[in-house]
């Protein structure tokens, strides 16, 4: 890397880092008020856990050369355990730049899963789940897709290779299918499909979506690891696809439900960002427009599947990240420019997506089940009903006692029947 490229990638890494608190706001506003802080913490804790594990062994598993020299394609070697020797190798400045950039992906990916489990899991069990999941699922899958001699990255059919520029398989399909596996183990929230579970703070949702949109330029364009024409194309397509996905979601929402909602606009933006992540550097702006439109409309439809199929994905991680990731990963098979599109390319994309789907689902289900039968994954019924903020953090997101009532969110004791009724509405 040239010095300018290093500076650019470090800035992009900082932008990607902002995506995790942006995700916390996005998810935090969508949850009920009594567990809003818990939702924020579920995202924030991923920053600490993944950062430590990345230095200890995560980077070397994901991006060390595949074991046995010739490359088994499954995990990297252990040359960089504890980042040992990284400061002494030739090109260490570029290696460290790449390491800090990819660390932000390792932080964000498990945080994405948290939205599916919101409102009903033990915080300590969630922290353990993150540590196990990134170690056994994310780090190896990142190696498959992007690592030296990774088997997905090395796949070829008729001269074509798998396209996943910034993480459609390794990040979004991976996290989305893991979310589904985990919710199947943990079960539904108390009152699912019976009680209203509306977002408590839609301005916070929009703020989170805006921070994610901003940070995603670093996520996508920075994945080129240089400032060049491909970077510019990816940045342009990121904007085009996201804006079109907002429209696609709102059009579907208007036809299906008769309204244009702010939650729909925010969710549509995320769907577009997800779908263009694997494909944006390999399609032209018209292709990005089509990917965004399809992602917005199809993801808007997909979020309703949880009510029909009976799984409780609290904040639509499956409908947005899994479905959006699949859309972007598969559509580039036919829309890729420079002669890369066609049935051979589509087949490669399908193989990559399918492999990650199966591995992540099976391993995540096993991990969640082990945690559930040992230390317990699910919060107690009492804590879930009262709210997880007080149960695990001894705090509340909003201090209603300042209104003079003495009411505390999630508490069963209030000083006024009127305030209690109002709090019940807010909690709902």
Write up what this structure looks like.
This is Ammonium transporter. Its main location: membrane. The protein is an all-alpha fold and 428 residues long. The chain folds into two domains: 3-374, Orthogonal Bundle (Ammonium transporter fold), CATH 1.10.3430.10; 398-427, no CATH class. The protein is 67% helix and 1% strand. The chain is built from 16 helices and two strands. It has helices at residues 3-30, 36-63, 92-114, 123-146, 151-154, 168-186, 202-221, 229-257, 262-276, 285-302, 305-309, 317-335, 343-374, 381-386, 388-393, 417-427; strands at 156-157, 160-161. The chain has a two-stranded antiparallel sheet. α1 runs parallel beside α3, α7 runs parallel beside α9 (262-276) and α8 (229-257) packs antiparallel against α9. The longest helix is centred in the C-terminal third of the chain and has 32 residues, at 343-374. The chain is globular. The chain starts with a helix and ends with a helix.
The third-level CATH topology of the largest domain is Ammonium transporter fold
Kindly provide the name of the CATH class of the largest domain: Mainly Alpha
Shape: globular
Mean pLDDT: 92
Report the order of strands and helices.
HHHHHEEHHHHHHHHHHH
Which sheet architecture does the biggest sheet show?
2 strands, antiparallel
CATH homologous superfamily designation of the largest domain: Ammonium transporter AmtB like domains
| CATH-defined architecture of the largest domain | Orthogonal Bundle
How large is the radius of gyration? Answer: 21 Å
Structural class: mainly alpha
Strand percentage lies at: under 5%
Spans of at least 5 consecutive residues with low confidence: 405-426
Give the strand order, joined by hyphens, for the main sheet: 1-2
**Proportion of residues in helical segments:** 55-70%
Number of strands: 2
C-alpha termini separation: 52 Å
The overall number of domains is 2
Please report the number of helical segments. 16
């Amino acid at each position: 890397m040239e010095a300018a490229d290093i500076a650019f990638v470090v800035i992009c890494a900082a932008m990607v880092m902002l995506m995790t608190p942006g995700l916390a706001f996005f998810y935090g506003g969508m949850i009920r008020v009594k567990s809003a802080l818990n939702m924020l913490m579920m995202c924030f804790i991923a920053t600490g856990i993944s950062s430590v594990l990345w230095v200890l062994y995560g980077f070397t598993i994901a991006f060390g050369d595949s074991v046995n020299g010739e490359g088994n394609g499954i995990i990297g070697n252990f040359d960089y355990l504890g980042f040992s020797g990284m400061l002494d190798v030739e090109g260490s400045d570029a290696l460290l730049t790449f390491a800090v950039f990819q660390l932000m992906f390792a932080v964000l990916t498990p945080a994405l899963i948290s939205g599916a489990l919101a409102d009903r899991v033990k915080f300590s069990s969630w922290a353990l789940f993150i540590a196990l999941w990134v170690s056994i699922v994310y780090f190896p899958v990142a190696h498959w897709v992007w690592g030296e001699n990774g088997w997905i990255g090395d796949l070829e059919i008729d001269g074509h290779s798998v396209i996943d520029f910034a993480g459609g398989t390794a990040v979004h399909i991976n996290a989305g299918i893991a979310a589904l596996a985990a919710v199947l183990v943990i079960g539904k929230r108390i009152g699912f499909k019976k009680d209203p579970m509306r977002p408590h703070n839609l301005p916070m949702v929009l703020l989170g979506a805006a921070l994610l949109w901003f940070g995603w330029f670093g996520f996508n364009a920075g994945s080129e690891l240089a400032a060049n024409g491909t970077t510019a194309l990816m940045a342009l397509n990121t904007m085009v696809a996201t804006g079109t996905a907002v429209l696609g979601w709102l059009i579907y929402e208007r036809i299906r439900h008769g309204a244009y909602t702010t939650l729909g606009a925010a969710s549509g933006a995320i769907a577009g960002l997800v779908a263009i992540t694997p494909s944006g550097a390999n399609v032209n702006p018209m292709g990005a427009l089509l990917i965004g439109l399809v992602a917005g409309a199809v993801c808007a439809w997909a979020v309703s599947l949880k009510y029909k199929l009976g799984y409780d994905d609290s904040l639509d991680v499956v409908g947005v990240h899994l479905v959006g990731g699949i859309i972007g990963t598969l559509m580039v098979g036919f829309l890729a420019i420079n002669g890369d599109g066609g049935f051979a390319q589509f087949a490669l994309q399908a193989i990559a997506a399918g492999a990650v789907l199966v591995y992540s689902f099976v391993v995540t289900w096993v991990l969640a089940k082990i945690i559930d039968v040992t230390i317990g994954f699910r919060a107690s019924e009492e804590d879930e009903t009262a709210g997880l903020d007080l149960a695990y953090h001894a705090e509340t997101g909003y201090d209603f006692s300042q209104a003079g009532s003495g009411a505390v969110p999630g508490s069963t004791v209030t000083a006024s029947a009127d305030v209690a009724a109002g709090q019940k509405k807010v909690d709902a």
